[in-house]
Design a protein that fits this description.
The structure holds 2 protein chains of 2 kinds. The radius of gyration of chain A is 17 Å and the shape is globular. The relative contact order of chain A is 0.17. Chain A is about 45% helix and about 10% strand. By secondary structure, chain A is mainly alpha-helical. Chain B folds into 2 domains: about 180 residues, no CATH class; about 120 residues, minor pseudopilin epsh fold (3-Layer(bab) Sandwich), CATH 3.55.40. In chain B, the strands form 2 sheets. Chain B has a 3-stranded antiparallel β-sheet with strand order 4-3-5, with helices on both faces. In chain B, helix 2 crosses helix 3 and helix 6 runs antiparallel to helix 8. The longest helix of chain B is centred in the middle third of the chain and has 22 residues. The chains are: A mainly alpha, B mainly alpha. At the A-B interface, helix 1 of A face helix 6 of B. Chain A: This is Superoxide dismutase. Chain A: Its EC number is 1.15.1.1. Chain A: InterPro entries: Mn/Fe_SOD, Mn/Fe_SOD_BS, Mn/Fe_SOD_C, Mn/Fe_SOD_N, Mn/Fe_SOD_N_sf, SOD_C_sf.
């Protein structure tokens, strides 16, 4: 059994005009798919055999204890597969999901950041300020307290011992240039602002619920 | 005689690059043999619609005279020191009427000169947005004293106590030196011998000696460029570890890090940030790396290598 490329719950072009269809296609079928192929390759190798059968979440959590010969490839490609799998679920065509947080999640955002706008401002800063490639995250930490952080390359907050601020991610944004360059070129802040329009707050609420129970986001991770 | 900034600079007679000497960097000054200095200043596009003009315009809000003084007063920008020495001295002696700022050096060629290997739109963005952004942010972050010590300051980052400032100088300052040297190291694919575009002279010998053969060097450099994860550069650089003979090395540098930050001398670099190739090559970085060999300006790179103390 090996990891398979997840499908989108919507068409490639369904997030237009905020994220263009060509980017969605290349992003998933080329970039994400490459991480999956490399991850599968590492798990087939002798040194990776110990992690074979592990969940994607476990691979990320345990990156630091992997054999040194496969640690980097598991970190980069296990992280890449996790991050992108989560990313596709966090977006939805306008009008097909809640466009704002509500309930317990909204309360947590209000009490932690002083409001949704204030939270977005901090998130935007983290996303724009991540130099080079990486991701920005809204996470739940100790006691379920929300915080915002960013990670380089394909690291994520699940990676204990690797992530500067470990936690349970509930919302993430890809700020690698491949995520926005075709439509936005160097204008990353414009991409970040546009992306909020397609955030699926129902999914974020689900992941917040998971985090409140001490769990990482429960996602469908298809195998073949 | 007037020529556009692009034409004047693409003639191949000018030399480029930063020069390492003991004690840090000094600019490599090459004085052109022909043409009037005034026309060359005009050729830097201060009154024309060229990449150079865009560059001067990027030092925003300055009058033409102020922009000219700023360009000439900058110690580092070898592209901008292609002027008759008396003009440089005169400008330097004139009172500075604006805050000291590093200028944005113009591209040494038209935006489409590297087609079809690197597309014109990428060159526009890469120079006018990405490099310009690094220049602007570095100017905003550093006071005059530190700006005048640029890029030597990149070899002394640990002297910057404030972590945030140190990070800014590393990232934005690295972005500046990397891109300036990169643009200088490229030329039209027609100017080289196509797929077999290669160095000659002392650099060719040194590469052969260090890596065994030209194909072996290409393989090592290309492989590093294709496998670098995330954003970064691959550099052929020269180490100068005290007492030991200098040695050529190939290394991968994340984000905008530079061999200068280790006290080493960058010779030839390749930008593998996605912005360097994504519009034309999409995710196919390998194709971009393989094609890039065709646009290396070997005479310019050789001059960088040979200008050593």
């Amino acid at each position: 059994m090996s990891f398979a490329l997840p499908n989108l719950a919507y068409d490639d072009a369904a997030l237009e005009p905020y994220i263009d269809g060509t980017t969605m296609n290349i992003h998933r079928t080329k970039h994400h798919n490459t991480y999956i192929n490399n991850l599968n390759g590492a798990l087939q190798s002798a040194d990776g055999a110990g992690m074979k059968g592990s969940s994607l979440e476990a691979i990320c959590r345990n990156v630091q204890s992997a054999p040194s010969s496969v640690m980097t490839v598991l970190r980069n490609n296990g992280g890449g597969h996790f991050n992108h799998t989560m990313f596709w679920t966090l977006m939805a065509p306008v009008g097909s999901a809640s466009s704002a947080p509500s309930g317990a999640l909204k309360q947590a955002i209000d009490s932690t950041f002083g409001g949704v706008d204030a939270m977005k401002e901090q998130f935007n800063k983290a996303a724009a300020g991540r130099f080079g490639s990486g991701w920005a995250w809204l996470c739940a930490g100790d006691g379920g307290k929300l915080f915002i952080t960013s990670t380089p390359n394909q690291d994520n907050p699940l990676m204990a011992g690797v992530a500067e601020q470990p936690g349970l991610p509930i919302l993430g944004l890809d700020v690698w240039e491949h995520a926005y360059y075709l439509k936005y070129q160097n204008r990353r802040p414009e991409y970040i602002a546009a992306w909020w329009n397609v955030v699926n707050w129902d999914t974020v609420a689900k992941y917040y619920d998971d985090a409140s129970n001490g769990k990482a986001p429960t996602m469908n991770v298809p195998l073949q | 005689m007037t020529t556009t900034g692009a034409n004047a600079l693409s003639s191949g007679t000018e030399s480029v690059g930063f020069v390492l000497s003991t004690g840090g960097l000094r600019p490599h000054l090459h004085v052109p043999r022909t043409g009037s200095a005034v026309h060359r200043l005009r050729g830097h596009g201060l009154d024309q619609d060229t990449p150079a003009s865009a560059a001067a315009v990027a030092s925003r809000g300055l009058s033409r005279r102020q922009a000219l003084q700023t360009l000439l007063a900058a110690p580092l920008w070898t592209l901008l020191s292609r002027v008759h020495p008396p003009i440089v001295r005169a400008a330097a002696a004139a009172p500075a009427s604006t805050q000291y700022q590093l200028p944005l050096p113009p591209l040494p060629y038209p935006y489409n000169a590297l087609e079809p290997v690197i597309d014109a739109k990428t060159m526009h963005l890469h120079h006018d947005k990405h490099l310009a952004g690094y220049v602007t942010k570095l100017n905003a972050a550093l006071d005059e004293q530190r700006l005048r010590n640029f890029p030597a300051i990149l070899g002394q980052l640990s002297n910057i106590g404030d972590a945030k400032l140190r990070s800014t100088v590393r990232n934005q300052g690295g972005g500046v030196v990397n891109h300036v040297q990169f643009f200088e190291s490229l030329r039209s694919p027609a100017a080289g011998s196509g797929a077999d575009n290669r160095p000659s002279g002392a650099l060719a010998q040194a590469i052969e000696q260090r890596f065994g053969s030209w194909p072996a060097f290409q393989e090592q450099f290309g492989s590093a460029a294709k496998s670098l994860f995330g954003s970064g550069w691959v550099w052929l650089y020269e180490t100068r570890r005290g007492g030991l003979q200098s040695q050529l090395e190939v290394g991968a540098f994340p984000n905008q890090d530079s061999p200068l930050m280790n006290g080493d001398r960058p010779i030839l670099g390749l930008d593998v940030w996605e912005h360097a190739y994504y519009l034309k090559y999409g995710p196919n970085r390998g194709e971009y790396v393989d094609a890039w060999w065709r646009v290396i300006n070997w005479p310019a790179v050789q001059r960088v290598y040979e200008s050593r103390k």
